[in-house]
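Thread: "does anyone have the structure for this chain?"

Original post by V.I.:
We have the sequence but no experimental structure in hand. Need at least a predicted one for the grant figures.
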Amino acid sequence: MNDFFSLLYEFFFDYDTNQDFMTALFVNKDYLWLGIIILATTCLSLLVFYKIWDPVAKQTFSFLITILINIGLIFGIAYILITNNNEITEYLVNQDLPGIESFILKTAAVTALYGAVVFIIFILIPFPFKFISKNNRHNPF
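Reply from O.Q.:
Generated one for you, tokens below.
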């Protein structure tokens, strides 16, 4: 699974420039954890939206708030996960290689982007979250 998730990130990064950083994430299996974060946070956000926040007065507005909270949570958790990687922390402290801060921010942003995509996919397919709601079943589409 680590291989699968690492392939998703290679589209956004130049491997020659970021080889040391990407290898540090791969060896520590952080790509797998980033994928788990995307899925778990999105499922939790949808559960809150369709079950706990039911009924919703302004459905579209509430949907947009939920997706923004989901993106923010994924970005924050991904940022913390990446900065807690021992090799990445070592690069940050020693400043051996330039661009580590931008790599961390870009990786967290890509993770948040994938989180938004997964959120929308889970909304569009008949996923069980819609069926646990009485009043929110047809929201947002």
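V.I.: this helps a lot. The helical segments are 2-10, 15-27, 30-52, 59-83, 86-94, 100-124, 128-131.
O.Q.: and Residues 2-6+30-131 form one domain.
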